[in-house]
Amino acid sequence: MNPPTPSLTFLDRDHSILAFNERVLDWARREQVPLLERLRYLCIVSSNLDEFFEVRMAPHLAAFNANEPRGPQTADDYVRLSAQLHELVAQQYAIYNDELLPLLQKQGVELVSHGERDAAQRRWVKAFFEREVQPLLMPVGLDPAHPFPQVANKSLNFIVRLKGRDAFGRENEVAIVKVPRVLPRYVRVPGPKGSKKTVFVSISSLIRSHLADLFPGRQVTEFSQFRVTRHSDLAVDEEEVKNLRTALRVGLQHRHYGEALRLEVSAGCSEFLSSFLLEQFALPPQALFRVPGPVNLVRLNQLIDQVDQPALRFEQHTPGWPVQLVPGQSFFERMQQGDVLIHQPYESFDAVLAFLREAVNDPDVLAIKQTIYRTGSKAEMIELLREAVRRGKEVTAVVELKARFDEEANINYAERLESVGAQVVYGVVGLKTHAKMLLVTRREGGVLRRYGHLSTGNYNPGTARLYTDLSYLTADKSLTADMEQVFLHLASQSRLPRLKSALIAPFHLHKAMLERVERAGLAAQSGQDARIILKMNALTDEPMARALAIASQRGASIDLIVRGACILPAQVPGVTDRVRVRSVIGRLLEHSRVFYFRCGDEEELWLSSADWMNRNMLRRVELAWPVTDPALRQRVKDECLSAYLHDTRDAWLLQPDGDYRRASDAIEGPGLSAQAALMARYGHRSQE
């Protein structure tokens, strides 16, 4: 492979992640979006930024504190990222205070501060505080015998400066009040008499109004709410531990108290208190965020859930039954006729649950194998697998204990499955199992036959209503045999034979995708029509990005539909002229991964659980499988590729300098939305 031209410079990954959040924040600005949904997008951005700090910021802060590089990170990177984060947070609170709160008030939804409450509301709040809140608060006055307490990651706290002496005559002037997580963050209070308004008070406002009650005999002179964000990416040396599940349980206990990375305080917090907190958490000034509002916007989801005004929400989308399936028909009979594609959430994920349910209840089914990465809080699939064990079937579950922020849930699921006799394994040491597979083995006429389900997403009924994903049901002998081999490899650690249809990371997927990119480039160089279209969440693997640049220089036409971070610049003269990158940010979270290659008259289309990231290709067990049925391949091209390439409402176009521009800027009128069109199409079918 020829080296790229010297002028190829990759875009910064962290900058790209924050640029993605700026695009999500745009939905909170859109006047045509229902008001509560605009507020929810604000919460989504806050949640994303929390995760950014928890996972991405520690090495940057380490480089800044050492004033020397830590790997690829430098002190300048930390300063630059901090400035970008401060600007993004400032935009969030400007939208919240200047746009959303006034509009909510016009719709009869009010968040009232102490000064805005009438006498009756103040009495109600006081009674609530004394009955429900004060008994759970334990103020800690700081002195040599009472050092600064451990403050959990992302928890709400107050710091208070006091005047006067304590019960022992000492002038310890600083106290900390932790707010327990069991307390609701937004409490609905009675509105004015005769009013239909929906009125809320935040727990922080409620407590600050009664701080003096917590310190009898002392005068509160200064106070501020505060929240610290800590490093939360669990690091366990799997080669050294004897029991990964036990090691992770211990790690989870410490996650809430990792290295401090960000400090949020009220905008009016005094220099004395903010400096005191920065010193306690050993943070530089850039880590201090003064916010004009609640320090945790994510918790506004509690307020949203309590407002009963359907007009302020998106019109509910009801997924239809998959078009290739007939309600009541046996899945096994249908899959014998050919592969089935389910496009979620336009089509219902319930069909996947129905497939597993039929397998559990079918006496001819002998074995069920499934990977478990994220299954949601209700975890109906876990209960179905437990029932399968009780019915005498062999059940193997590959549970990924290291699924970020789902570790504890998956440990519990593993224990529940083991308690009834399921075979539970945790995949390969050092690798996350991110492939989504469900394999059913059935006795038919004296022979065993396999039926499989593959997915670009998770086995989570909740997110299946919010994420676009592709589910694939197949009885293809070659593909299901590959799935069997992958399960055998994960359980036994035996050498994986060459697969017949599928591609698996970390063994084949990376190399195979690079080969296909190169093949397209060489085909274009020889005068053939060559096209690459890739749809994924992120493109951050440098060898793959470099290969795409080379293929474009050789003449291949490349379209990348990348929702989040993308390090490959688009349409840089002489470097990536033929590379176009678009990010579609719609009502639904784009999650499907589709890889399309055409060289002359030959075309391939692959579905996968993997993004084009180094970790996915080389440090995870991922799967990609081909769509060989011409009709299904055309359907994926139409619904997942062409529709998004023609989106002019929700799409953003990457510029050579790394900035994104709205596709709608180049047109007049409302534009076309791929998601809206698909929801309308499948919504119509569900009503037929």
UniProtKB/TrEMBL annotation:
Residues binding ATP: N48, Y467, R563, H591
- The keyword Nucleus belongs to this UniProt entry's keyword annotation: no
Q: How is it modified after translation?
A: An intermediate of this reaction is the autophosphorylated ppk in which a phosphate is covalently linked to a histidine residue through a N-P bond.
Q: Which residues bind Mg(2+)?
A: R374, R404
Instruction: Offer a single GO CC term for the protein.
Output: polyphosphate kinase complex
Q: Polyphosphate kinase C-terminal domain location, by residue?
A: 331-494, 503-665
Q: Which cofactor does it need?
A: Mg(2+)
What are the protein's UniProt keywords?
ATP-binding, Kinase, Magnesium, Metal-binding, Nucleotide-binding, Phosphoprotein, Transferase
Catalysed reaction(s)? [phosphate](n) + ATP = [phosphate](n+1) + ADP
Can you give the residue ranges of the Polyphosphate kinase N-terminal domain? 10-111
GO function terms (MF aspect): ATP binding; metal ion binding; polyphosphate kinase activity
**Could you tell me which Gene3D superfamilies the record lists for this protein?**
Endonuclease Chain A, Polyphosphate kinase middle domain, Polyphosphate kinase N-terminal domain
Positions of the catalytic residues = H434
What is this enzyme's EC?
2.7.4.1
Spell out the SUPFAM superfamilies in the cross-references.
Phospholipase D/nuclease, PHP14-like, PPK N-terminal domain-like
Q: Where is the Polyphosphate kinase middle domain?
A: 121-303
Functionally, this protein is described as follows:
Catalyzes the reversible transfer of the terminal phosphate of ATP to form a long-chain polyphosphate (polyP).
NCBIfam families in the cross-refs:
poly_P_kin, PRK05443.1-2, PRK05443.2-2
Q: What is this protein called?
A: Polyphosphate kinase
Q: Which organism is it from?
A: Hydrogenophaga pseudoflava (Pseudomonas carboxydoflava)
Source species taxonomy: Bacteria, Pseudomonadati, Pseudomonadota, Betaproteobacteria, Burkholderiales
